[in-house]
Design goal:
The chain has 2 helices and 5 strands; from the N terminus they run αβββαββ. With 114 residues, the protein is of the alpha+beta class. It is globular. The structure holds guanosine-5'-monophosphate.
Length: 114
């Protein structure tokens, strides 16, 4: 299966404003920010959607959330508040089929989301 744009970012083939990376996870700014802070957190492993995540990915999934919290702190929105979103499949608005967490903050958030 060909890489998505996020797979290419993870491999360093496409540039992005990277805020954090390690051997398993990369966090970078969204190209079309929906809030003053809008960061995407992805596994280097190309999992297409949350539906494809397997029991053996449990630790990796946990790590994505820990990196989200770390980035939120780094960006200064940990205390004011932020939202972590995973869109799963087209009906939920997923457009890039490489699992990612959106970390959004720096403005008031409405509930329920659209
Ligand atoms: P989704 O709709 O799949 O949940 O989120 C995909 C996100 O990826 C969108 O918010 C979109 O702005 C962002 N995005 C799409 N292409 C690129 C890109 O090439 N670079 C970066 N940094 N973000 C991208």
């Amino acid at each position: 299966m060909p890489d998505t744009i996020f797979g290419q970012i993870a491999k360093g083939e496409v540039s992005a404003d990277i805020l954090y990376q390690d051997e398993e996870v990369v966090a970078f700014r969204d190209i079309g920010p929906q809030a003053p802070v809008h960061v995407l957190v992805i596994p280097r492993k190309p999992i297409a959607t949350l539906n494809e995540a397997q029991p053996e990915d449990a630790e990796l999934l946990g790590k994505l959330f820990l990196v989200a919290a770390r980035v939120a702190a780094q960006e200064g929105i940990a205390e004011s508040g932020y939202r972590v979103v995973v869109n799963c499949n087209a009906g939920a608005g997923q457009t890039v089929f490489h699992l990612h967490l959106h970390v959004l903050g720096g403005r008031p958030m409405q509930w329920p989301p659209g």
